[in-house]
Amino acid sequence: MIVDERIAAYIFSLEQEMPEKLSEIEKQALVDYVPIIKKPTQSLLRFMLRSLRPENILEVGAAVGFSSLLMSEYMGEDCHITTIEKMPERIEKAKENITYVGREDKITLIEGDAADVLEQLAAEGRQFDFMFMDAAKGQYINFLPNIMKMLPAGGILISDNVLQDGDVVQSRYGVTRRNRTIHSRMREYLYELTHMKEFDTIVLPIGDGVTLSTRI
Ligand code: SAM
Question: What's the pTM value of the predicted model, to 2 decimals?
């Protein structure tokens, strides 16, 4: 937690309840230790979707479908979500959850490694005006070239977990050896997002750290 827990709890106490089926899916995911978006990121997505009203959403990292289902709740009538997941047991659960909420016509789940799927979607000339990056943190930087091909001017890229629970501000030696590669790749990713001439990016210390990047 990178924000004071009391402040986070207070802000959360102001939030409205989410629909019951979503709440059930969220609870089950937490019981099963599936890493889903935290409350502040949920609120941010809801707000962004209602403000921007995108037409085509791409999510990288579906897990059990919770964030896609949450986005489908707040997006416009004609909007569609394409989401990518590679772990077979999560794919099965995501399909089950999407059917449970009745969003089969709103959410397309693509099974496979995002590196390959993004390459394919970009080669097909697909465009997405709202992208949510929530997969393996060390890979964000590798996904960026294909993400750029598919994001039109005015489109938005939201990346979750960019502050690694605060670890990203540590020196490379302050993090465990296991996390050092992710640490340096995430720093590289943050540097790219904030210095690329194609993007205007803001880094927000909410949840586990989120960036909002708009394509200029
Ligand atoms: N967005 C989900 C939510 O909030 O409900 C949580 C996503 S979870 C943080 C990250 C997911 O990305 C995991 O289920 C993991 O299997 C998946 N993932 C990681 N690297 C991936 C890759 N290269 N291709 C596809 N999925 C990947």
Answer: 0.95
